[in-house]
Amino acid sequence: MKGDSQLKKFAKLMLLTVLLAMLVPAGAALAETSGTNGDLIYRTPIASADISLNGSSSRQQQFFQILSYWKVTGVQVSLDYLASPLTQNNRSSVTVLVNGTAVTSFRPVADGQKRQHLVIDVPGSVLVRGANTLTVEGNLTTGDDLQICTPNNESENWLELFKTSAVTVRYVALPLTGTIGDFNARFTGPDAISGEEGAIVVPKDAEASELEAAVYALSGFAQTAGGGSIPLLAAGDDDASGKKLLVVVALRSRLPAGLSALIGDSGLADKAVVRLVRPDSQPTLVVTSDNPDLLVKAGRFVGNPALLSQQSEGAKEITTATDTDTPPVAIAKITNLTASGDKLTGPGHLAQNYFIALPANRSIAEASKLSLNFRYARNLDFDRSMVTVLINDKPIGSKKLTSELADGDTLNLTIPKNMDLSGNFTVSVAFDLELLNTTCADRQSDMPWAYIDKESVLQLNTKDRTELLFNNYPYPFLRDGIYNHVGVVLPEDRGDYTYRAIGNLFNLLGQYAEGNTGEVAFLEDGASADELAGFNLIAIGSYRNNKVIRDQNGKLYFQYNGDGSGFVSNEKMSIDETYGQRLGSLQLIDSPYASGHGLLAVTGPDDEYVYLASKLIASQAEMWKVYGDAAVTDKDGHTAAYRFKLEKTDQAPVVQNILQRKDALTFTAAAVAVMVLVLVSLILMIRKHRKRRG
């Protein structure tokens, strides 16, 4: 299939994004130490929540990163744990491995309900640039030494790893090489993201072309920022001067004089330039041109992560002939789970996870199937060994392993329709490999084993999720991975909060975007209805400074009072007059300017509350608070979401159901034929009876 190669490329990119998100879980932080050597510290929590090692033999894997521009001076693993009080200390052990190499083993201390703390130094020889794998394996025994060859009670074998456990990397940042590719790696690096070191800056009262170029660039950075946020700031914002890394997007005539002098190009009417300046003080990537159209094209270039990472020079010129587009996003029906096959070794419960990339606006339809091809060792206890397939940790089917099929087994499953899968999801293949008389035999790390063949595939039938609800966000603003005719209606008066709100919106939209070929347009609040008709609209501002919000106040679920100073009560929520002046709101309604389009109002009585509302859809970590088609929030963090639209049933029309089912179609055809025969017979009998009487 033509789209298969494109899908594989897209899946790799999405897998990288998810991996980065795993590498930078919630709570990761960057801080300077007080040491005399000036080392920096990057701390990656082992997990965002407490995790457990259960059973007599189990393992957990997590990831941490060594960035290309770090000179590592030391790595430590800190484990905070609590072992089962029944643990036999002299017979139980925990092994810590980094990239498959054991770095230490220890006897877990079971001291009632008292937490234990252990610090492990990781040798530099086992570390690699990029992603590193940390594995914690537990062999936990609670049985009495005198009980020989008796089954273990697996429920009492446990070791709890607390979320305070972490990997700490001490490092020195290497000097910037002066290339665009190196700047890009640092700008989106997890240390810069968690330390809030970077920002994108546009001129105050930015023109439409400058904002359009900036959000394309922001979308590209958001794809590789691991779920972190990159602010969009106006020139002169106090926060911009304190950033260590800047991306400045502006027409050259609107650049600050100091930056304009560093560009050096005499004529930019027929080209744009992306140039790295001030590498030794405040590294700044300047995106500029005299031509608004070429400035937008340069923004698309920066919004192509693959192209930007390939730049080995300090400047790149963009002309009308420069190819800046990302490859088209292909939605293929057949997806291979693994490119070359995956082997799992060891006894007990083992799982292999596969990330499946799917545009956020598409969901799994009926008749989607999974075909699993696998093989396994013959030395299993086949009365207790099995394989289970899970999607997003929910089981969809299992199969018992047998000695007859050990050299080539299959499992074919239909994905249940009621799972309501949309967007990206995870397929897990879990084996329970049980050995005979395991309490009397030493366990071997390479036995038993199971192998998932590369012929294992997922057949996906998908459909659009087109109902205007935050449950389906980012639809309608993204469709099949690209911007879907997005029109951003700006307020009449723009302050710093306005630009920050735009940055919030496009951080999350950029994370969902898979290509840079869609359309984003910035419109003034006085744009005509004809100008607004061609877009899915995002109206930013208050009743007083955005005409679109003012004109459509009667259609909003949370409406403003007569003078626009605050929100009033509705059928879902009682709002005090003064409290209504301290709320920000998100509301998703049908566009009044064109059927089939949507309008998102990001609004509040003043700019601060508009910014508060935008924070609800600035990241996936906050997005869970928003559902239905309207939400309100206040400065104290209280958020309420509601659904005002009537719910639609998922049942297909009767005719459609009949046409999709062969058995029903056959029965219906037969019934219709019988009815026709009966009707004809009645007509003939009536005619015959009338002739006789006549």
Automatic annotation (TrEMBL):
Domain of life: Bacteria
Hydrolase keyword on record: no
Membrane topology term: Single-pass membrane protein
Keyword annotations of the record: Cell membrane, Membrane, Signal, Transmembrane, Transmembrane helix
InterPro entries in the record: Cell_synthase_bac
Transmembrane residue ranges: 664-686
GO terms (BP aspect): UDP-alpha-D-glucose metabolic process
UniProt signal peptide: 1-31
Keyword Membrane on entry: yes
Residue ranges of coiled coil: none
Localisation per UniProt entry: Cell membrane
Gene Ontology cellular component list: plasma membrane
Protein name: Cellulose biosynthesis cyclic di-GMP-binding regulatory protein BcsB
The organism of origin for this protein: Cohnella zeiphila
